[in-house]
Write a structure and sequence with these properties.
8 strands; 11 helices; about 350 residues; globular; di-copper center containing domain from catechol oxidase; binds copper (II) ion; signal; Tyrosinase_Cu-bd; metal-binding; mainly alpha
């Protein structure tokens, strides 16, 4: 076959030819072109401002979850409350990764539908900044999220941390957060956003080597624990993990397991964790829909989920409080296992289809 014939056949097959029968036969709910989620420094300055402005936009929109979260004062705080209220049920569990993937997808959808944002959530690969961590592009005062907290000698719980006070620069320096640190029903407070940046921790944990160790995990059960991190494990590699350590490198609000989505960097860090999971999923067809590990938290002592369900997470497992954007259906794990799986049935889970259509670039 001549090369141009091949190209023609190919464009027809993927539905690029206008009006091609192939295109018409397709279910428009499927994921033909996965939207790119880019690393922060890959965005143009204008794209960076568009994202920052979209986040500021939802910070200035009233809560639409007041009946559920009376202490939420904005659309942005709805997400802090959603995360805070679910914290005991979504960390150190088999569904940690899919819950946070769905949470980010919902946040992204709200930016797009309620604030006319046309991009995607960016990710922050901290390993690109370890040589000069305090000057990472994400900390830029105009084209970033501002820098460290005021110098208070760092956080005594985070080795090598600096700052610790309210952030003093950038678009979020005047942000007020009204969600209390502890207690799901704790009344409103009025406070700033804090950071206690810890460059040595980033140098030790946020590295390409750590990422490749995570990607070498033989199954989901290992991958999920190594990526999240868990203090109950003696192996230091597992203990902190790229997820937990990435919260600790920023410190302040990001160091608080309950209300860390108060720092906009939460979403960029979690997109990076999601990227690493997606990279692992892409390594083999059996990885793509792999899921497991217990529903109950591994650390019952520090989290209060009384009588958690027994058994392991499956594609049918419900993601508490998260609905698929644009539907009234409760999301299940299977909806979000494949980032490019919109409209595609999930193996082993009749009736469950993917809802996502993005990829990391
Ligand atoms: Cu979380």
């Amino acid at each position: 076959m001549h090369i141009s014939t091949l190209i023609l056949a190919f464009t027809a097959a993927i539905g690029l030819t206008t009006g091609s029968p192939v295109l018409q036969q397709r279910n428009s709910d499927q994921c033909y072109w996965a939207s790119p989620r880019k690393e922060w420094r890959m965005l143009t300055n204008q794209e960076k401002l568009n994202y920052i402005n979209a986040v500021k936009c939802i910070q200035n929109k009233p809560s639409s979850m007041k009946s559920k979260f009376p202490y939420s004062t904005s659309r942005y705080e709805d997400f802090i409350m959603l995360h805070k209220s679910e914290t005991p049920r979504i960390h150190f569990v088999g569904h940690f990764l899919p819950w946070h993937r769905a949470f980010l997808a919902n946040f992204e959808k709200v930016l797009q539908t309620e604030c006319n944002y046309s991009g995607m959530i960016p990710y922050w690969d901290q390993s690109r900044d370890t040589a000069n961590f305090l000057n990472a592009p994400v900390f830029h005062t105009t084209y970033g999220f501002g820098g460290n907290g005021a110098e208070e000698g760092g956080d005594p719980n985070i080795p090598g941390s600096t700052g610790g006070g309210c952030i003093t620069s950038g678009p979020f320096k005047n942000l007020r957060i009204h969600i209390a640190h502890a207690g799901v029903d704790a009344p409103n407070i009025d406070r700033c956003l804090k950071r206690a940046i810890a460059p040595p921790l980033a140098q030790a944990w946020q590295t390409a080597k750590k990422e490749s160790q995570v990607l070498a995990s033989p199954n989901y059960e290992t991958l999920a624990v190594v990526l999240e991190g868990d203090v109950i494990f003696p192996d230091v590699m597992v203990k902190l993990g790229m997820h937990n350590s990435g919260h600790s490198t920023v410190g302040g609000d990001m160091f608080d397991m309950y209300i860390s989505p108060g720092d906009p960097l939460f979403y960029l860090h979690h997109a990076n964790i999601d990227r690493i999971w997606a990279s692992w999923q892409d390594l083999s067809s059996s990885n793509l829909y792999a899921i497991g590990n217990p529903i109950a938290p591994r650390q019952n002592s520090m989290l209060s989920w009384p009588n958690p369900p027994a058994g392991n997470v499956t594609p049918k497992f419900e993601l508490y409080s998260l609905k698929v954007p644009g539907t009234t259906t409760q999301a299940v794990v299977g909806n979000v296992l494949n980032t490019r799986g919109r409209g595609v049935g999930v193996p082993g889970a009749p009736g469950v289809k993917g809802v996502l259509c993005y990829q990391y670039v």
